[in-house]
Structures are given as C-alpha cells and as structure tokens.
Design a protein that fits this description.
Blueprint lengths: L3 E4 L2 E7 L5 H4 L3 E9 L4 H23 L8 H15 L14 H18 L2 H11 L5 H14 L10 H12 L6 H17 L6 H17 L4 H22 L24 H13 L5 H13 L3 H5 L6 E2 L11 E4 L9 E4 L4 H11 L14 H12 L8 H15 L3 H6 L22 H14 L4 E4 L2 E4 H4 L1
Antiparallel strand pairs: 1-2, 2-3, 4-5, 5-6, 7-8
Length: 472
C-alpha cells in the first residue's frame, strides 16, 4: 500500500518531500504514526493514509504557492494539522491550563511563549501585514491557523458517548429487530440504557455502568449468567467503537457478584396443574394464543422461546398416518441446540386443535406471538398463572414437569431427550442426551412416559385415553 511503512508493530505514513520543496520544508521525508497496529483492516489503514496524505498535500501546496494563491478553509486546516505534526505540537497542547498549581501554570505559560516565538512567529508577520495593508502569504495564514488549533482547548470537542458506540455498532452489524437473535441484543441495549443513561465513553464509566446495571438486575433476582449474557453485545459495541476510532479507552468486563442466597425456582404442583388446566379449558376470556401457549407448556416442559419459534411443519397433531396417531412437536434450537427434541402431546388435543385454527398464521404455531419478545409472552402467561398461585411463573411449568418425572420414576433418558435437561445443576450429563429419537417406536415409548408424567391431566383405564377437556 502506497506510503505505508511498518516499524515493529506500529504502522506509519511516510512519503518523500517533492524535490523542489525540500529546501523550504527542511527535510527529505515526512513521517507520521497512523495510530494503528499490524493486523488492522486494510480499509481502515487506507482511510487513515488518505486523510494524512490530504493534509500533507495541502501543506506542500502552501509552501509551493506564491502570495496570490488563495487557500480554501479546508486546505488551510489540513495544512495547519500537517504543520503541527511536523513541529511536534498537538492540537490544544498550548491551550491555557484549567487545572494545576500556580507554578505549573507559570511554567506552561513560559513554554507557550517560547513555542510561539520560535515556531509560530509568522503570526507577527500576519498582524504587521494586515496593519500595513499587505496580503499575508498562504504559508503565514497556515501557521496562524496552526497557532489557533494549538491554543484552542481540545476539550471543546464533545467526547464519544455510550449511544455513539451503540449506534455505530448497530449500523455495522445491521441489527434487525425482526430477527430474534438480533432483537435480543437490541433489547439488552435498551434495558442497559434505561438503567444507566447515556454517558461519556470512558474506561471508568464503562466499568461503573456495568456495576450499576448488574446491581439493579441482581436486586430483581436476575441470575448472574443472564446479566453477563445481556452485557455481551453492549461490550462488543464499545470495543468496536474504541477500535475503529482508536480511542484511549479500556473496555474491561465487570463480573457481577453472585447473590449469597440462591433461590430455587418454584415448580408447579399436580394440584396447581389441575387448577390451571381447569382455567385454560373453560375460561374463554383468556387470549387464545396465551391459552394455547400454556396448554403446550403445562404438559411438555418446553419454555416460551421454544414454542415461540415452533413452526407448523414441526407440529404433528393426532391423525398423521406416518406416526399412527401420536401427537408431538419438534423443538429445534432450544435448550438442546445440537439436536432435535421430540415432545409428545397427550392432553387437551381437541382444544389445542381448535385454538390452533384460530391462532396459527400458516408458518408459526403461535401466530402473532412469534413476533413478540419472550418477556412479553412470559408476562401474558404469568397473569394466568398468578390466578393459581402468586409465586408461579412461566418457568414453573418446566420445573414442575421435571418434578413430576422424578415422582413417577420415568427413565432419566426421557428427561434428557424429551425435556432437554442435558445441562445445569439438575442434569445427568449423559452422552446419549445428544441423540435424537423420532422413530415411531421411540415416539410411542415417549408418549407412554409423557402420560405418566401428566397423570393429573390424563386418566387411563384399560389403556383407553380420556382427555380432560373432553370429559368435562
């Protein structure tokens, strides 16, 4: 790449001074750090080189021009920045000190006077020429402007903020609220922003904002791993912005402290399950999509996000010839991302079919609910569950299903393969949990176990299945 030089791990812009300008400039080559290291993206390196080269081209043009040449404001600024780089003075470096002792301020003022008399003496020429009616040279104009940049406080430039970083990240990643995985990242940002507000993007603010957000979430009894997961896209946004703009900012991850008291999730009991089923079977005032969600969750142990992504092609209701009347659905990319999980349905099938006709949109089983947030679905389900017991949540249905598995003594393989309990504190962590059994014989066996687990919803007599909603 033209004008690109490397020294150790640093990248530099370097080019030769035009021959006819070497005497005026006083050197054969000009060189400047790019502020990038080896491994930076080619597009980023090329953009930085183009920016610096534009400044030097303006400076060379200034040196080469005669007094009749008129510089544009952009050329003048670019040339002034190149001049400051050549003399080793940063933008704002000669501005008055806003903090410090009296002796420090006096020493700084002496330094500024020395630099003005030696490096920026052209400003005196400009003043004299204006007083005498003469036109200052372009070079004098550039040095005057460089003096202005050197003495103007750099802090006048607004610092980057959390919002700046997120907007940049969102644009680069092309985040789409319509895509579930991306929608979660957007929701995490909105939750974080609502908790800590928009702040300058500094190392301290980034770390302390994480601490503040984590404390708020812990008070709401959110699990530590959930907090860390919600912070991941936000920290990625901060790192991307810092890297892109070469900011002197460290993005350090805060580790939320585990609560001293870990609360066990409440599982729904069999008596509570019967009461819930009674409500779902008879109360037509409950939204149809919410009723359908709870009918499926109550007997399957699936979580709302799994049902939210459930497609009609993966939902096999009774009567399908291939499965000889076994009703079940496939869970894909849920608690068991590495395999398909077959989940038999054994209760309320007629009511489920009736609600399915009303709710499904041709693609998703839950219709419009498939396009809402998981928290919105949980909120709707929780309102119904609170009628049974104030301590119940949507997740109580999953834990209640596992509790019933223990109570009736179904094989542990069933808990893993159908319920997806292949990770976490209650996991058996068996290798066969990765297997997916969707053959008819295996499905019939799973259906048999599922009836035992849901004995509160299904009555068996001489092998004849009686569905609760049909018996009412």
């Amino acid at each position: 790449m033209k004008y690109l030089r490397r020294h150790h791990n640093q990248l530099y812009y370097e080019r030769a001074v035009p021959t006819k300008l070497k005497a005026a400039v006083g050197k054969n080559h000009v060189k400047q750090k790019l502020g990038l290291t080896v491994g930076a993206a080619d597009s980023q390196v090329a953009a930085k080189i183009a920016q610096i080269d534009e400044q030097y081209q303006a400076w060379f043009k200034t040196v080469a021009s005669d007094n009749s040449y008129k510089l544009s404001q952009n050329d003048k600024r670019a040339a002034a920045l190149a001049y400051l780089n050549e003399v080793g003075i940063g933008v704002g470096e000669l501005a008055p000190l806003s903090h410090g002792t009296l002796s420090e301020k006096e020493a700084h003022n002496e330094f500024v006077d020395h630099q003005r008399d030696n490096l920026f003496d052209a400003i005196y020429h400009v003043v004299y020429q204006r007083e005498t009616g003469a036109e200052p040279s372009p070079k004098d104009y550039v040095i005057e402007y460089a003096w202005h940049l050197a003495t103007e406080p750099e802090t006048l430039q607004a610092p980057a903020t959390f919002e700046d970083a997120w907007l940049f990240y969102s644009a680069q990643k092309k985040l789409d609220r319509g895509i579930r995985s991306q929608r979660k990242a957007i929701q995490f940002w909105e939750r974080f922003h609502a908790a800590v507000g928009n702040q300058p993007l500094t190392s301290k603010n980034i770390y302390e904002a994480q601490r503040e957000y984590s404390d708020i979430q812990l008070e709401r009894e959110v699990q530590v791993q959930s907090i860390e997961r919600s912070l991941n896209p936000i920290l990625s946004a901060f790192r991307m912005y810092v890297d892109e703009h070469q900011l002197d900012v460290i993005v350090k991850k805060y580790k939320p402290k585990q609560q001293t008291r870990v609360q066990e999730r409440v599982g729904i009991t069999e008596s509570q399950l019967r009461e819930l089923w009674e409500i779902l079977s008879k109360d037509n005032s409950i939204r149809s999509d919410t009723r359908l969600t709870l009918l499926l969750m109550a007997q399957s142990g699936s979580i709302n996000s799994e049902l939210q992504r459930l497609r009609m092609k993966d939902f096999i209701i009774e009567g399908h010839p291939e499965y000889e009347g076994v009703s079940w659905f496939r869970v894909l990319n849920g608690k068991t991302k590495d395999r398909t999980r077959p989940v038999p349905l054994v209760a309320g099938l007629e009511l489920i079919k009736e609600l399915l006709e009303e709710v499904a949109d041709g693609e998703y089983v839950l219709g419009k609910l498939a396009h809402l947030t998981e928290s919105a679905i949980s909120e709707k389900a929780n309102k119904v569950l609170k009628r049974v017991n104030p301590d119940l949540t949507a997740y109580s249905l999953r834990h209640g299903w596992l509790d019933r598995c223990y109570n009736v003594g179904v094989p542990e393989s069933f808990q893993d393969r159908v319920g997806g309990w292949s990770a976490g504190s209650k996991s058996k962590k068996r290798g066969y949990a990765r297997m997916a059994d969707t053959g008819l014989d295996r499905l019939k066996q799973y259906e048999h176990y599922q009836k035992q687990v849901n004995r509160a919803l299904v009555a068996t007599s001489e092998g004849n299945l009686v569905r609760l909603n049909q018996a009412m």
